[in-house]
């Protein structure tokens, strides 16, 4: 099977790259190991896009904004502005809360509308550089398949494709892996009462009590009411495991599921609005806050986003603060960023001369910057921009790594994918 562009990994970054590239008339395929696209946005139980707007102002365009709009049109999405973080009420972020089940359908619609070929339940095995592009090896329920493509995008979140091709990556020491979370959903919640309690500022006292009694393992208990329902997603469980080790990953899933029973009982007893609630869903995957990152042509550093550095080859923007979940202290450390920062193309390109880009959480950043750029609105923005750039390269028979900043900027302006705002609060 032959394609102009293949994307390994159908998370939000991969989907946005695929539909953008395919909308330009090129043949695009996604290899996805799960049976649905969207990654953490649809499977982890997380039900909010953090920093989807900046101080109530739209920040993103293109298919990303289309997804936001479709969620709202179907009463499955709602904007909340300057909401305080449960672990630090002084840090406030605009959010779009949404129903993950409706998001699954919207992503499927966009993939079909733009004729993206998706291979579900398919595991990436290896990629090899060929004279005319790449061959990709994959398996589906034990059967091997081979694909050919001119251009390749790594959306695996862990540089699996880049590593297979011998590209340089940044090592990820097990001791530096942030805590992982298994989210769950509570139904039959009195949401107005719950939200009034959260707004009162009293939740922090309940969090402290739960932590001191060993009910929760970290100083966070976050609720995300799901629009169009009487449900809320709950972000609270914690495990310190190396998700790359199958034995540890299995142990981590056991640990987080074993925490849920006592947490639900505590919530029903101590959180107003939750007395009649019941457990209705446990996410099938861990929400992992770690990634093997690319060692790219450029690296985005903390000073770059703190100082809101401008890049001529800017392909994405963000305003989410630095958000580090410390595996030792169990606390969340924030660094507020007072504006909109930019992300250059070079953080997605390997040092090697390959028509390959890395997107999602695995772009080339330092550890602190990763704690900001890993959130979904940013990876969606970068993914869509990379899709536009690769479509341009395919249609003009160009090597991606030779594109000039001027060419990149022209594509971004034509496609209206990058908000050039760099305002300060």
Automatic annotation (TrEMBL):
InterPro entries: FAD/NAD-bd_sf, HdrA-like. One of its GO terms (molecular function) is 4 iron, 4 sulfur cluster binding. Pfam families: FAD_oxidored. Keywords: 4Fe-4S, Iron, Iron-sulfur, Metal-binding, Oxidoreductase. It comes from the Bacteria. Gene3D superfamilies: FAD/NAD(P)-binding domain. This is FAD-dependent oxidoreductase. It comes from Lacticaseibacillus zeae.
């Amino acid at each position: 099977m032959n394609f102009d562009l293949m994307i390994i990994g159908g998370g939000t970054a991969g989907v946005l790259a695929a539909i953008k590239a395919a909308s330009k008339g090129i043949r695009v395929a996604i290899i996805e190991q799960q049976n649905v696209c969207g990654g953490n946005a649809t499977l982890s139980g997380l039900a909010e896009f953090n920093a989807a707007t900046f101080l109530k102002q739209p920040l993103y365009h293109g298919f990303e904004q289309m997804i936001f709009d479709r969620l709202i049109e179907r009463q499955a999405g709602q904007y909340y502005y300057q909401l305080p973080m449960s672990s630090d009420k002084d840090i406030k972020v605009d959010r779009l809360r949404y129903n993950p089940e409706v998001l699954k359908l919207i992503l499927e619609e966009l993939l079909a509308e733009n004729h993206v070929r998706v291979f579900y339940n398919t595991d990436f095995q290896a990629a090899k550089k060929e004279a005319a592009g790449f061959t990709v090896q994959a398996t589906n329920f034990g059967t091997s398949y081979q694909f050919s493509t001119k251009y390749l995008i790594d959306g695996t979140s862990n540089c699996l494709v880049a590593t297979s091709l011998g590209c340089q990556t940044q090592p990820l020491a097990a001791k530096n892996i942030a805590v992982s979370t298994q989210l769950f959903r509570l139904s039959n919640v009195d949401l107005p009462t719950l939200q009034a309690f959260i707004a009162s500022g009293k939740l922090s006292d309940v969090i402290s009590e739960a932590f001191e009694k060993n009910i929760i393992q970290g100083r966070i208990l976050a609720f995300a009411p799901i629009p169009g329902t009487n449900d809320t997603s709950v972000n609270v469980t914690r495990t310190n495991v190396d998700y790359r080790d199958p034995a540890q990953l299995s142990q981590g899933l056991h640990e987080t599921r074993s925490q849920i029973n006592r947490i639900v009982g505590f919530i029903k007893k101590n959180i107003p609005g939750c007395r009649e609630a019941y457990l209705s869903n446990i996410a099938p995957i861990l929400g992992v806050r770690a990634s093997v990152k690319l060692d790219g042509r450029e690296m985005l550093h903390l000073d770059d986003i703190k100082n809101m550095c401008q890049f001529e080859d800017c392909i994405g923007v963000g305003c989410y603060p630095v958000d580090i979940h410390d595996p030792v202290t169990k606390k969340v450390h924030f660094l507020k960023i007072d504006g909109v920062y930019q992300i250059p193309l070079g953080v997605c390109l390997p040092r090697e001369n390959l028509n390959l880009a890395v997107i999602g959480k695995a772009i080339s950043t330092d550890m602190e910057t990763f704690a900001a750029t890993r959130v979904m609105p940013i990876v969606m923005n970068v993914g869509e921009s990379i899709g536009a750039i690769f479509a341009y390269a395919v249609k003009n028979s160009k090597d991606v790594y030779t594109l000039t900043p001027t060419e990149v900027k022209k594509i971004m302006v034509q496609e209206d994918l990058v908000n050039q705002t760099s305002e300060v609060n």
